[in-house]
Structure formats: structure tokens, C-alpha cells
Amino acid sequence: MKLRFGINQAEAFRRGIDATSSTATIEVDPSKLPQDTRNLIADRLLGIDVCELRLEDGARVKGWDRADDSPIRVQAAMATFEALLEAVKADEARIAAEETKAQRTIDGKALGIY
User: Are 49 and 1 in contact (CB under 8 A)?
Assistant: First the structure.
């Protein structure tokens, strides 16, 4: 299966990698990946695009740029599966932190703490 994601060209440059494109497409055999890895990637798929997640009304949604009518892809440092997985895990940590913050805000306001 093909997976398309963004390349952070500045980060690639810092690492001495010549990233000639801001987008990469790699071929992956999902049957060779652990279930938790497949789930992390599948949660972000729009077609073959691996997208960042966003919170909208407390729900996780795949990132979509309404102005450009295009997906907001996960940004990896290199055009490799390992770099993609690192970027997906970072996106998961970011969205989980946002969910925790949003829940604390809701709970705090409900209790009159904030």
C-alpha cells in the first residue's frame, strides 16, 4: 500500500539530507506491521495521505485545509517509513496532550476552578 506524507525540508537539511520534494510516497506492506502501528497510521489515513489529527468539538478529525481544499499531512524528517512512524507517534502525543488539556478545561470550568 502507498502512503503519502509531508517532508519537513528544513529538518532534512539540518540532517544533511537532500529532500528535493515536500511530499513523499512510500510503499508499505501492512501485514508486516504490528497492529498498534497499523492503527496509528490508519487513524490518520485519507486515501493514501497520512494526515495530522485535529480536535473539533472534542472529537479527533483528520486535518484538512479548507482554504486549499487539501489534506494536512504529517511532516516527517525523511522519506522513510521509520521517519514517518516517528512523525505519527509525535502527532499522537500532541493530540493526546490537546485532549488532556481540553478535558481539564471542561472539568475545571464545570467545577468552577478556573
Answer: no
